[in-house]
Every structure is written in C-alpha cells, then in structure tokens.
Design goal:
By secondary structure, the protein is an alpha/beta fold. The chain has helices spanning 12-20, 38-44, 61-64, 67-72, 74-77, 86-94, 185-195, and strands at residues 3-7, 29-32, 48-51, 80-84, 99-115, 128-139, 148-154, 160-165, 170-173. It contains seven helices and nine strands, in the order βαβαβαααβαβββββα. Strand 1 (3-7), helix 1 and strand 2 (29-32) form a beta-alpha-beta unit. The longest helix is centred in the C-terminal third of the chain and has 11 residues, at 185-195.
Length: 196
C-alpha cells in the first residue's frame, strides 16, 4: 500500500503525514506542489493521493500546482484521491464549480457537521460529528458540478463540508481531519485508506 501527499506549502501537511503513516505499509512520499510533475507522480503508481491544505485559491497555478493535473487526469492516475481544505476546493473549481469567499473567515473553530449522503469516508461515523475548520473560501453549493455528490454540510448555513465524485475515487473535505478538533478524523482517514 502506497500513498503520496502533495503539499500545498502548508504546516498541516506534517500532521496529515503523522496520522496516515501508521496506516500505510510503505513510507509515505511527500512532494511540494511544484516539485513533481503529473507524469512523475503517475509513474510512482500510488494507491492513494492526498492533496493537502494550503494558502491561496485553487484556480491559481502558483497556489495549486500539480494538484490541478491530479484532479483533471484522475482516471489515468488510478489512485484514490482525497482533497483536504484547499484540495477539496480544487475539486469543485477544476470540475467547473465556483470557489468563493466564505460568509465569514473561520480560523481554528469547530462546527457541527451533518452527513447528507452515504460516503465510505463516513462509515462508522454517524449522522453528525464535530470538525475543525480553517478557511476563508468555500465551494459554492449552487455551482457544484453534476458529477459531484455533496456528502456533508455545516449545520448552521449548510456550507459544503465534504463531497465525492459519483463514479471516480475522488473525495474532498473542507474541514481538517488531522486536527484534534475533529475527534473522528482518524477514523475518516482510516476509511479513506481501507474503503475508498
């Protein structure tokens, strides 16, 4: 079992690495989003790829780098892909939806999240859970591409908190599963490795 993390220059990447490494038989490989090409990544043939959180907007190549190619060329990659925060937003943006300024900037606050649709990420989690959020941008619900299913929303304003592709192994979470403020985050990452 192999996994690659694409680091969007974010300090949370190391936390994801620490939580995921015990779940993977091979050493996890971490690459900054501008230090590996899509072809090089595909040649590694990873079972799973994680697109990390990060600053900026997924529409800016300088902020998102090779992550764009991972999303657009996912079928040839043949890996399960999980986008976290910026990675999640990138899925919506690069499949044709809009990423806009959130109603309020959230930095280090927990929210109650409600599961809206069946997803392997949430197996054994229940219908609602607490999750830590750090973001100023959000995927706009009304523009979600038709091939995407919204799987979880924030309780207050119904903001998109998780999604998955209807036919491909492509998943996204707006919140931070690697945070202590997401008590069931470890279970979600285990589900990604074992069930996605």
């Amino acid at each position: 079992m192999s996994l690659v993390i694409i680091d969007n220059y974010d300090s949370f990447t190391f936390n994801l690495f620490q939580m995921l490494q015990p779940l993977i038989s091979e050493p996890i490989r971490v690459f900054r989003n501008d230090e590996i090409t899509f072809e090089e990544l595909r040649n590694l043939n990873p079972d799973h790829v994680v697109l990390s959180p990060g600053p900026g907007h997924p529409g800016n190549d300088s902020d998102f780098g090779v992550c764009k190619d991972v999303i657009l060329n996912r079928k040839s990659l043949k890996s399960a892909v999980l986008g976290v925060c910026l990675g999640h937003q990138g899925i919506v943006h690069h499949l044709g939806g809009k990423v806009v300024r959130a109603p309020q900037i959230i930095h280090g606050k927990t929210s109650k999240i409600r599961v809206k649709s069946t997803s392997p990420l949430f197996d054994g989690i229940g219908d609602e859970f607490e999750a830590m959020r750090y973001h100023s941008l959000i995927a706009e619900l009304s523009t979600v591409p038709v091939e995407i299913t919204v799987t979880a929303q924030e309780e207050g304003q119904g903001l998109i908190m998780a999604l998955q592709h209807k036919s491909d192994r492509l998943y996204g979470v707006q919140f931070h599963p690697e945070s202590i403020g997401t008590p069931q985050g470890q279970k979600m990452l285990e589900n990604f490795i074992d069930k996605c």
